[in-house]
Amino acid sequence: MGEAQIVQLAGELLWLVLVLSLPVVLVASLVGILVGLVQALTQIQDQTVAFVIKLVCACITLALTHHWMGEALLGYAARTLDLIGQMGS
């Protein structure tokens, strides 16, 4: 495995981390904005409400996307380990 392959694998890993974290971050951000708007309109300024709602939505998002995330991570790990195994040959 040459330096170019290592750089390529590192780039793929960073892209994979970005893609896998995007659904949870996006949902938490949108829910945070909506909860903040509702809190501003109703003048309820309790921080635990926003935290609990965002936490529940993030958990639901993880539960809905865990199969896809697992497949993507396992695919990357398998490719990486195959390349490492080919180094000895």
UniProtKB/TrEMBL annotation:
<feature type="transmembrane region" description="Helical">
    <location>
        <begin position="49"/>
        <end position="69"/>
    </location>
</feature>
<dbReference type="InterPro" id="IPR002191">
    <property type="entry name" value="Bac_export_3"/>
</dbReference>
<keyword id="KW-0472">Membrane</keyword>
<keyword id="KW-1133">Transmembrane helix</keyword>
<dbReference type="Pfam" id="PF01313">
    <property type="entry name" value="Bac_export_3"/>
</dbReference>
<dbReference type="GO" id="GO:0009306">
    <property type="term" value="P:protein secretion"/>
</dbReference>
<dbReference type="InterPro" id="IPR006306">
    <property type="entry name" value="T3SS_HrpO"/>
</dbReference>
<feature type="transmembrane region" description="Helical">
    <location>
        <begin position="13"/>
        <end position="37"/>
    </location>
</feature>
<protein>
    <submittedName>
        <fullName>Type III secretion protein, HrpO family</fullName>
    </submittedName>
</protein>
<keyword id="KW-0812">Transmembrane</keyword>
<comment type="similarity">
    <text>Belongs to the FliQ/MopD/SpaQ family.</text>
</comment>
<keyword id="KW-1003">Cell membrane</keyword>
<dbReference type="GO" id="GO:0005886">
    <property type="term" value="C:plasma membrane"/>
</dbReference>
